[in-house]
């Protein structure tokens, strides 16, 4: 598995403000070329991980049609030594280093070092700009995460960060760099133990579907809280049991049809789906329930056709809990103290 899954990617789109040593950026959900079915969580950022305009347009694509936009150097930048970055699923990009100015609200500006994408091994329209949040290491060198750079420049006072997503038909939220904002959450945080300090995995002990304890699946696997992903990804070995329980453990039985990599349900039946509760490992080994309601499990794609926001792939190393697991949640990533907290928004 690629080490870079721990970057916890948040894609790029709206605006930032600074107050009380916290850097805030609004989060929204947009359709991107990365995923043609599910909208991705995106924030507005003007530097880190941007696409190099010269390379992109030389490849016969128009930056004006590209959701993430392109980074244009002034004066024109020259490609330097490149670094190859591999992602889960086989995507591979090449970056070269650049330094540019980053402007926040309230007249605060700072320079940042970042990478410009200069090569991609897939269809160009599926490339993305990404914001790395997790601490840097030897594999990500010479690049440092945005929180680390802001901390070094004393724009923020700590490298922890939070993100929350409001639930609803058009979910939105906020990325908060530099600490925790208790005013954005309801009550105390439930803390999960980071079981792999290098990859920042937590652990899933089990999965309860619906309210009947008999519909509980033992898991015992690491998990990635991947706030930049759009949906939940589990190993193929859990597919049969999970789909069977989703069809029978709700208010009424429903039919879920597998079509390729997607699972299709009538939107009229979606309210009858059961909840999914991932049983997470707490700081002392206790079970911490992370409940996902039925509304967060589906995505309407056209009239009365909904897709389940869950996929099954040959990923034996970890479960990926994407944004669909966190709608209505506030997450606080205190990686320096090897814990991640969550609460209701």
Automatic annotation (TrEMBL):
One of its GO terms (cellular component) is extracellular region. It comes from the Eukaryota. Residues 30-343 form the Peptidase A1 domain. Keywords: Aspartyl protease, Hydrolase, Protease, Signal, Zymogen. One of its GO terms (biological process) is proteolysis. InterPro entries: Aspartic_peptidase_A1, Pepsin-like_dom, PEPTIDASE_A1, Peptidase_aspartic_dom_sf. The keyword Secreted does not apply. Pfam families: Asp. Residues 1-19 form the signal peptide. GO terms for molecular function: aspartic-type endopeptidase activity. Belongs to the peptidase A1 family. This is Peptidase A1 domain-containing protein. It comes from Perkinsus chesapeaki.
């Amino acid at each position: 598995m690629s080490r870079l899954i721990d970057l916890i990617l948040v894609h790029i789109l709206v605006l930032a403000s600074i107050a009380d040593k916290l850097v805030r950026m609004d989060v929204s959900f947009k359709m991107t070329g990365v995923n043609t079915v599910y909208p991705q969580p995106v924030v507005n950022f003007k530097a880190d991980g941007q696409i190099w305009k010269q390379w992109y347009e030389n490849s016969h694509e128009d930056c004006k049609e590209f959701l993430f936009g392109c980074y244009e150097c002034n004066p024109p930048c020259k490609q330097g030594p490149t670094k190859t970055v591999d992602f889960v699923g086989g995507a591979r990009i090449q970056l070269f280093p650049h330094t540019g100015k980053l402007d926040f609200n309230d007249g605060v500006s700072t320079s940042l070092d970042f990478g410009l994408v200069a090569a991609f091994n897939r269809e160009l329209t599926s490339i993305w700009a990404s914001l790395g949040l997790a601490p840097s290491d030897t594999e990500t060198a010479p690049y440092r995460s945005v929180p680390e750079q802001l901390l070094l420049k004393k724009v923020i006072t700590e490298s922890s960060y939070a993100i929350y997503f409001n639930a609803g038909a058009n979910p939105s939220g906020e990325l908060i760099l530099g600490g925790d904002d208790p005013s954005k959450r309801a009550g105390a945080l439930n803390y999960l133990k980071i079981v792999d300090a290098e990859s920042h995995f937590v652990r899933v002990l089990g999965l309860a579907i619906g309210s009947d304890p008999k519909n509980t699946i033992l898991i015992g696997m690491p998990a990635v809280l991947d706030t930049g992903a759009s949906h939940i990804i589990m190993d193929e070995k859990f597919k049969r049991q999970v789909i069977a329980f989703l069809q029978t453990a709700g208010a009424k039985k429903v039919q879920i049809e597998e079509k390729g990599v997607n699972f299709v349900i009538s939107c009229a039946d979606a309210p009858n789906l059961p909840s999914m509760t991932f049983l997470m490992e707490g700081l002392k080994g206790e079970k911490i329930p992370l409940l996902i309601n039925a509304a967060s499990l589906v995505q309407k794609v056209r009239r009365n056709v909904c897709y389940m926001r869950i996929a099954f792939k040959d990923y034996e190393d970890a479960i990926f809990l994407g944004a669909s697991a966190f709608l209505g949640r506030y997450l606080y990533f205190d990686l320096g103290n090897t814990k991640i907290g969550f609460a209701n928004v």
